Amino acid sequence: MNETVKEEKIVPIQNAGLIKRTFAGILDFVIMILVCLMFQGFITFPIAKAIATDYDQNYEKTISYYKESNLVLYDKESKQLVQLEESKYLIAAQQYYNVYCASEYEGVHACSTFGKTFREVVEEDKQLVDFVVFNENDSFSFKVPEDSEQNKEQLISAIKSRIYSKALYDLQNSKLFLKSNRYITNVQNYSQYSALAISMLLVYFLPSMISKKGQTIGKLIFKLSVTNQEGFQVKKSQIAVRFLAFAVINVVLGLVTIMIIPLVSFAFMCISKRNSALHDYCAVTRVVDDKASVIYKNRQEFEAAAEAEETRFEEIDNARENYYSSQEK
């Protein structure tokens, strides 16, 4: 006895095109950055400063270390630090080591090389010792190899920059400077991370949860929708998992791996048949072209709609046959 095998109907969906999905992703990212900057500037950073009562005090300390070291200029009008001109690099470095770091106020001055003169610091640097020659009175001159005479000015400029950068490094790595700078850096980082988390929730998570089609602003504009792997309406739990996977892969692992993991996810999206990224695999979702697809709640709803359509076509065919039969009579 032959059994009739019921043919499974094909769900009427079309996968999202790579270009449209890429541009939708770029648009969402730009919106997220703008929202993040707005929140950090007007909400999270002011709140972080209000909670961290010693922020202004530590910020002023950091500025004072720069000003007192004379390695960086301070513009009173703009209240901004200004880097020295190259012509002042050596004078500033000499004063920093021979005067500022040589003072007896080790507990006040920010210097990680107390007890060492400018000459000692330079002579300990293997990259400088062959190019800077000191005399008995601690004056110095530059020694340029014969094969570098044509590039003499560039070499001397590089030596000056090296000495100045070394002085800045010793300032910024002193215990006093690090203590204040870490405090203000931590406050700034907390405000940035908070703003980033809020902006991601507002741009990626909230719109997707509100929309029945799991759409962000970018997907809405480019007519894309999120479905489950079969092409039916995505569940809220899948949206939540998709968002968490997206945040971990593209933000957390992106920062840790210097964007390598997000690039791998994008590569998956480029080569997979359904243009699915890693967070789609984690949430068992897919992105489809909304204009070319009809998204049903589940298979039962789809099959009921398909059967209703077949019945309608059968009725049309029967009506046509009855009409032609009546005409022949």
Nutshell version of this structure?
The chain is 60% helix and 7% strand.
- Tally of alpha and pi helices: 11
Mean model confidence by pLDDT: 91
Q: Characterize the biggest β-sheet.
A: 2 strands, antiparallel
What is the CA-based Rg, rounded? Answer: 34 Å
What is the overall silhouette?
elongated
Distance between the termini: 41 Å
Q: How many β strands by DSSP?
A: 6
| N to C succession of SSEs | HHEEHHEEHHHEHHHEH
- Structural class comes to mainly alpha
Strand order of the largest sheet: 1-2
Describe the structure.
The chain is mostly helical. The longest helix is centred in the middle third of the chain and has 36 residues. The two termini are 41 Å apart. The mean pLDDT is 91.
List keywords for this structure.
two-stranded antiparallel sheet; two-stranded antiparallel ribbon; single chain; mainly alpha; 329 residues; elongated
Provide the fold topology:
Blueprint: H1 18-51, H2 55-69, E1 72-75, E2 80-83, H3 89-100, H4 118-124, E3 132-134, E4 140-142, H5 152-172, H6 175-210, H7 217-221, E5 224-228, H8 236-256, H9 260-271, H10 278-283, E6 285-289, H11 299-328
Antiparallel strand pairs: 1-2, 3-4, 5-6
Helix pairs in contact: 1-6, 2-6, 3-5, 6-8, 8-9
